[in-house]
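As a warm-up, study this chain.
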Amino acid sequence: MIAPFVRVLSIAVFAAAICAPFAVQAQDEEPALELRLEDFRLSAPPALALLGISAATVTRPNTPRALIASLVSGTGSSGLVPDGYALETSPYWLVKHPTLQLRDYYNAGLGDRLRYFTAISAATSRRSSSVDSIQPDARVSIAVRTLLFNGRPGKALVATSDSMRSLQLTYITRYRRWESVRGTAGGLAAQRRRLMRQEDLLSTLVTKVLVGPERDLRDSTLGTLARRDSSRAAVAAAESADDEVTRLEKEMESLEGRLSKLASSFADRDAEPDGFILEVAAGVRALFEHGEWDRERSDGVGVWVTPMYRVSASHLELIGVARYLTRVADYSNRDLLDLGARAGWDVGKAGMSAEWVRRSVGEGGPSSTRWAALFDYKLPARLNLVASFGSDFRRRAGKRPVVATLGINLGIGAITLVPSGKAPQI
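Now compare it with the structure written out below.
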């Protein structure tokens, strides 16, 4: 009796998950938009954030030649601003710095930090136009961001770096030995042919000595015997070198795989720095009438300040965000100020966080706040159970929707089990 009931209940929940969002949106004229604090941070170049767009690709040149080529292609043709161009580059890393150590990188002074972490970005965007309209306007933004404080390397990062250095030294030792024995192993086939000739010659001479008493043949036989023994020793050395070359190649292949895994782990969350980190960014935006480069006027500025404090040993992370934008199109070209903070804590496979954001709109616009509590739990097969509850920004009609969701993240999107409904207004 219980199994059929559970099956029917599962089908009902799945049907509700599919049908409920459409029914809710039909009733609510202004559905709640689930914004998170991450939407205010600079995960993408600040130049894109100034334009309020996302780019399919962002060019990141790492050599002076690549930078020049990208800038030439980004100027467009016929004196018009191109659409969808995005670039970000760090001047310091346009050339290689092989002697820079990880500890020096993190313990740098303010001047060195500005060199290491400063990145410049640029982006362009053009409004879509209909066939019978005039040439659309274009917007161009240029921004810079850097780290004033970069924290300290966490234990995971130091351990990964030390492991990589140890493996690299081991790899270099194996490679040098491989180079020294490769020449000996490469002559193995020739040494074997030479030994076969000495063996054949020795067999013929031994036969002649046995049937004839000539002294000269005995001397030739002894000389051939000595050369045969020398060839045998050379073949044995070449075979040993060949075996060593094969072993060294397998070891170097294994070391390359381990180095590749360690390099990829640098991007993992557990390898992020500890301590206090402060990122700042600023940029300007310009409007080009009809998309022409020679018809430019200022169109706004943006400033971001993102402090963060992280303690990996306690799995604790504190993040703050301050964002100031001028002439925001979604707010009738008024200025916008967002101030927010989030505290996150990981316990085993579960992650919990709480965040709060206050939004102030200039020129007498309405101010509002948003808060949310979020929960994430790792399930088998790379699935994540996600849930959130909170209150969203107040809408134009004065309503302030409640955000309440429960879902399973498949890695390519989330299947909603309990969707955000037309919640009570606060």
